[in-house]
């Protein structure tokens, strides 16, 4: 990471800790972090969960067909939009699986505190 990215990471961690969105942890596995630039050139923190897939038990079921999903929305009046940079951290996580949100940085190991 560049010096500016390290400063942005420290600022991000401090603000997430202050907001109570993350907490220090010592999980059995943790993922590295990196930054990507958004469409507006803003830095977005990304947690690379690629290796978590190797130890995750997969759900085995057929995905719904897209045309069937669209048909179900035919008469819908209200839709929602999710903020993937910040809103992602507000999604509920099954108890016992929070360790899977753990990430490692130069400043320590952290995990999400979403209830």
Automatic annotation (TrEMBL):
It comes from the Eukaryota. SUPFAM superfamilies: DNA/RNA polymerases. This is Rhizoctonia solani AG1-IB WGS project CAOJ00000000 data, isolate 7/3/14, contig 16655.
């Amino acid at each position: 990471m560049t010096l500016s990215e390290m400063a942005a990471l420290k600022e991000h961690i401090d603000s997430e800790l202050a907001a109570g969105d993350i907490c220090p942890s010592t999980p059995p596995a943790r993922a590295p972090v990196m930054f990507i630039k958004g469409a507006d050139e803003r830095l977005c923190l990304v947690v690379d969960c690629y290796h978590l897939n190797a130890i995750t038990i997969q759900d085995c079921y057929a995905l719904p067909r897209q045309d069937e999903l669209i048909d179900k929305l035919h008469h819908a009046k209200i839709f929602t939009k999710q903020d993937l940079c910040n809103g992602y951290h507000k999604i509920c996580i099954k108890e016992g699986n929070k360790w899977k949100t753990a990430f490692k940085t130069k400043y320590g190991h952290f995990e999400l505190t979403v209830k």
